Amino acid sequence: DTGVSQDPRHKITKRGQNVTFRCDPISEHNRLYWYRQTLGQGPEFLTYFQNEAQLEKSRLLSDRFSAERPKGSFSTLEIQRTEQGDSAMYLCASSLGRQAVYGYTFGSGTRLTVV
Amino acid sequence: DQQVKQNSPSLSVQEGRISILNCDYTNSMFDYFLWYKKYPAEGPTFLISISSIKDKNEDGRFTVFLNKSAKHLSLHIVPSQPGDSAVYFCAASVNNDMRFGAGTRLTVKP
Lengths: 115, 110
Known about the structure:
Distance between the termini of chain A: 36 Å
Strand content of chain A: over 45%
Shape of chain B: globular
Structural class of chain A: mainly beta
Shape of chain A: globular
Largest sheet of chain B: 6 strands, mixed
Number of strands of chain B: 11
Distance between the termini of chain B: 38 Å
Oligomer: heterodimer
Order of helices and strands of chain B: EEEEEEEEEEE
């Protein structure tokens, strides 16, 4: 068990470019979550998958954002036509079921800077 | 809508003393409350949780207290150690929704 892996760790992109992040959850975890964290704030929910099905999306997830989890394993988060306001830490987490008692396992995040 | 609030952005305590981190929430439907710890350049790490049907949960040096009538929870760390220096996030959960507070940066001075 190597934990939740996120790639890349850092990404600097020019405004208007598209970016894609990858998350590899813990292999036996059926749930995968994407959160966004900006400076001085806690993680904000973006979306979650149960296996390959995307079951919930936050209104924070504008139509420029899309997430996939093909085959219920790794997930990708794509941001099209990036804006400076998209600069944030993007966190991925996974769990086996709801895991309210033991919480989610988070990755180290991908820090996006839009210039 | 900020349903989970941590009103103290920072806290500094002396090694060996008690650290008390506070959290308030507004949604009475939350049924689990959690504390996460975050070091720089790492993701949040689960620390301890409490069900809404309990008022206290203890795990070693960490104790979480829940006051449902006041919609308030706190994390006590006794004794505090320099390695406890980190950002602590309070989180509250109902169904598939988990909301986080903005975090409190704890500094434990040797």
